[in-house]
User: Fold this.
Amino acid sequence: MVSLQGGEPLLTVRDLAVDMRQRHGVVHAVRGLSYSLDKGEAMGIAGESGSGKTISSLALLGLLPAGISRVVRGSILFAGRDIVGMQDTELRALRGGRISMVFQNPLSSLNPVMTIGRQLTEAIRLHLELSADEACGRAIEMLELVGIPDPERRLSDYPHHFSGGMRQRVMIAMALSCRPDLIVADEPTTALDVTIQAQVLDLLNRLRHELGMAVILISHDLGVVADTTDRIAIMYAGRIVETGPTRQVLGAPRHPYTIGLLRSIPSLDGLRRRELAAIEGAPPDLSVDITGCPFRDRCAWAIQECAEIDPPLEPVAPRHTVACWVKPAETVEAT
Amino acid sequence: MSDERSAATPMPAGTTPPLLEVERLRVWFPVRRGILRRRVGSAKAVDDVSFTVGHGSTMALVGESGAGKTTIGRAVVRVQPVTSGTIRFKGEVLSELVGSDLRRRRREFQMIFQDPFGSLDPRQTVGDILAEPLAIHGLASPGERPTRVRELLSLVGLDPAFASRYPREFSGGQRQRIGVARAIAVHPDLIVCDEPVSSLDVSIQAQVINLLIRLQGELGVAYLFIAHDLAVVRHIADRVAVMYLGRIVEMGSVEEVYANPAHPYTVALLSAVLNPRAGRRRRIVLSGEIPGVDRPPAGCSFHTRCWLRTRLGNPEICGQVEPVLRGATGGWTVACHFAEETPRHQPTRAPEAAGGAV
Assistant:
């Protein structure tokens, strides 16, 4: 676990709210999100479809689809400057420079008609003052770092020459090529086979420690987050409902939603064929204003207060906070 | 191609054959290259695969991309022509059935797909979707159908009033329930489930897994369960076949295979399962990529990525001789020359072990 460092955090998201226009009206996709991230720290953001985890990370890259969604409230301070309201030119300089990203589908993030070498060197020269030769050397170095065999020769290959796992390595090489302070990885291994996922997660873990980058890992897979991060934030209905050191939150969860998620995952050592504790019902409609706790309709512990006032995040242990009026201390048995 | 075999292996009197018997199944696709698209070889998507599924039981096929598990599922429900081999359903060779015999049998095996969005006709109401198979197979008169549709919806945990709605009005989990309702509408004995929960959120995934287990108890249906998630398979299946590049590399009861995996690939797959409650665990990280089925490595097709082979000092036999499925110590089967060495060499599976690759 990384201890709290002195000084300013690398990233501070404060009361962020993002609206999205959809066919049936405006969806309040992110409804007051706050967290901070230290230098070199790895944080996981976990949640299911529609929890706001991807939209909030697009916001911190300044990549919200224009005309469809926008930040309606809050700030995103990166190295002391607010990303909300930043001009496009500034944002472009930041992205791929001090902040870079890795997405779920590497094929759609790479240019199919440009060689890997050209894409790498262009990205490098856009952000670092290097000659063409130096940039090329850097590109080879990066491909070597992520374990692409014979990197010099592979510079002239196109994305379709690479397998899914190799493309994701190329994306990571690209993301690392300008020595960013922060990598935002959105479901980086979801499209990969499990043995290839193991390779990519190992690579990310190793490089993060070697290069001292901060990582925000967004995933629906709690196992992936547990494997890769120091700290975790569980999102539900556009907000963080529980956050703290990863081992502690997943080992001793106190929010009914976190408890429910963990119970619903079959494991390799629980009882077979017993009924999994599914969370019945579905997440709330975020196009209407929600009074009280957004999870209460699906919650076995709900009490009167839950219908009236949305619970704030309150500490239950050092650095471990939970947004719940009840905060049940339940053991999560293996299922 | 299969008459000899079926004639040669008559069922002993008084025993019922297994529900499904797949014997030496091959599905090969032509590989064409060059301007003339000449056939230069075969991609062995499924190669020499044999297994059985018992009445009311669940057999799982697991493996990664290119393993051939989906192709097998498609061959079983007869949407994929086979190259050779036999598929018997209740003792009858499926490929020999025609006309009314085939139609009668068709009702008895159904399929559920991964994508609950793509497998339902968007222009039909849920009621129409569920009434159609009842009409085709003559299972309910037009007057009885609405009642039966409502019964089916409540059986899979949906509000019977949903019959008049369209698929787009439902969430992924609800659509998968509709897919399940459509499959069980015709009282099948076997449902081929192709990654039925992998596109669903975990809390919804649990709902669908619970539904499948409950329906098996209530209806006695058997499942051929195709999946890549080993924890889900362990939860739902009785037997499991682990596949790699078109072949079964290990097969046995779920208890046996998960407790004492004998094939190094099974060990690697199990060690790659991430448990959120265990944190970082020791795992075997395989080097290299999954080769294409059109160019499988010689000998054992797993040898290029095999950690056990490396530990044993790269014995030559692995790259030369293809291992056959043979009995392992505990009564299941494994295709590895050195399966006996696996337990001694595999890393500790203690979840608290220090992180990092082995």
